[in-house]
Specification:
It contains six helices and nine strands. By secondary structure, the protein is α/β, with parallel strands linked by helices. The two termini are about 15 Å apart. The chain binds NADPH dihydro-nicotinamide-adenine-dinucleotide phosphate and the ligand Nc1nc(O)c(N)c(N[C@@H]2O[C@H](COP(=O)(O)O)[C@@H](O)[C@H]2O)n1. NADPH dihydro-nicotinamide-adenine-dinucleotide phosphate (NDP) binds near residues 46, 50 and 152. It comes from Natronolimnobius baerhuensis.
């Protein structure tokens, strides 16, 4: 399995504002790059915080890229995955439409009724007692044939993936905006590291739109 984390952050390192609403940090070229990256992957993963905040579709938008996937013998859309310990994903969430296969990774703490509701719309993966055990969940996704994984956020999930040593690559678009706010989500939130900080190796750095794209290897 190969896991690439992709995100767009403001010049001051925020993924969104303190209102946790979706903000267009990327420019047109970066959104096109993200669409190509999605098209190149078996699955696109987010945390339930992103589903509740943004209600994303997580689909490939360019029809030509979908057609190319079909030509290559793949489904027209990559699978979508939500990491959601308590099965809080709303049944009318855009990520549960039938335009792509969806997996919801839950923990044993998810109420049975919520799990049954979601099971009508998605494949459920149960891993972990109170919180999704990411190592077990990603192993289950791999067993289901999902090898090339893209994670789109948010900051809580990205931190946990680094904590579990699950990140192979980090691609960050740094946009020209200042968002600020001590409670605004950053690229890696969670409890934070106080020692043994993961370090990355810079692979490429390019100017894109009005910002920069940094690609790091883990
Ligand atoms: N600019 C960008 O590129 C992006 C921006 N965003 C922004 O980020 C914000 C959302 O980020 P955030 O609130 O951090 O939410 P996340 O999407 O990171 O989801 C976090 C939630 O995932 C669940 N979860 C389950 N298991 C785990 C685990 N092992 N580790 C971590 N989380 C786990 C937890 O909820 P539970 O315990 O209930 O399961 C947790 O609260 C929004 O404002 C959104 O707009 C999001 C993506 C990309
Ligand atoms: N690459 C990127 N740039 C930004 O500026 C963003 N705000 C995001 N957000 C992510 O994209 C998801 C929306 O996906 P759909 O367009 O609905 O398919 C959103 O939930 C964030 O994960 N990404």
């Amino acid at each position: 399995m190969h896991v690439v984390v992709n995100a767009a952050m403001s010049a001051d390192g925020k993924l969104s504002s303190r209102r946790r609403e979706q903000i267009s940090i990327s420019g047109e070229s970066d959104f096109d790059r993200v669409d190509r990256l999605r098209a190149d992957r078996d699955a696109v993963v987010v945390g339930v915080g992103t589903v509740l905040a943004d209600d994303p579709r997580l689909t490939v938008k360019d029809d030509a890229l979908c057609e190319q996937r079909r030509t290559d013998g793949q489904s027209s859309q990559p699978a979508r995955v939500v990491i959601d310990s308590k099965a809080r994903t709303p049944v009318d969430a855009a990520v549960l439409t039938d335009e792509a296969e969806t997996y919801v990774c839950v923990s044993e703490a998810a109420p049975v009724g919520r799990r049954m509701d979601l099971a009508d719309h998605a494949e459920l993966v149960t891993a972990g007692d109170d919180r999704v055990d990411l190592l077990r969940a990603f192993a289950a996704l791999q067993a289901a044939g999902l090898e090339q994984i893209m994670v789109e956020g948010g900051g809580e999930l990205i931190f946990s993936l680094f904590e579990n040593g699950l990140v192979d690559e980090l691609r960050v678009f740094v946009g020209p905006t200042i968002i600020g706010g001590r409670d605004a989500p950053t690229l890696a939130d969670g409890d934070g590291f106080v020692t043994n900080f993961p370090t990355l190796e810079l692979e490429t750095l390019e100017r894109l739109d009005d910002g920069a794209l940094l690609v790091w290897n883990s």
